[in-house]
């Protein structure tokens, strides 16, 4: 049997909730809505060693903060207690569009 602690569903659920809250502190500087509600976060994976991998996109490939935003996201994830490492992978597949925004984001931007 492995010495590694297996993450149970409660722990994964609690960590995921805390990570989502941390991600909601990161904003696209051009849009007054956080990146989670904008739909820029595609996937968050947590392994048994508390390493977190985030797959995300940007509103546009030429986004002025493309070089900085992954670091902001890593820092936000690492602010959650117990996380060992954070890695952010940028993807543009599928490309982001406004349909990926939450209803909350659409309300905030007067789109509903």
Describe the protein:
By secondary structure, this protein is of the alpha+beta class. It has a single domain, classed as Fe-S cluster assembly (FSCA) (GMP Synthetase, Chain A, domain 3, 2-Layer Sandwich), CATH 3.30.300. It is 28% helix and 16% strand. The protein has 3 helices and 3 strands. It has helices spanning 9-23, 69-78, 103-108; strands at residues 41-46, 51-56, 85-90. Strands 1-2-3 form a 3-stranded mixed β-sheet, with helices on one face. Strand 1 (41-46) and strand 2 form a beta hairpin. The radius of gyration is 15 Å and the shape is globular. The chain starts with 8 loop residues before the first helix and ends with a helix. The model has no long low-confidence stretch (mean pLDDT 91). Residues 17-88 form the MIP18 family-like domain.
Poorly predicted regions are none
Order of helices and strands: HEEHEH
Helix/sheet category: alpha+beta
Question: How many angstroms does the end-to-end distance come to?
Answer: 53 Å
Number of strands: 3
For the record, the CATH class is Alpha Beta
Number of domains: 1
Radius of gyration: 15 Å
Portion in helices: 25-40%
pLDDT average, as an integer? 91
- Count the DSSP helices: 3
CATH-derived topology: GMP Synthetase, Chain A, domain 3
What's the architecture, going by CATH? 2-Layer Sandwich
> For the record, what is the CATH homologous superfamily label?
Fe-S cluster assembly (FSCA)
> Biggest β-sheet, characterized?
3 strands, mixed
Q: What is the overall shape? A: globular
Which percent band covers the strand fraction? 15-25%
Strand order of the largest sheet: 1-2-3
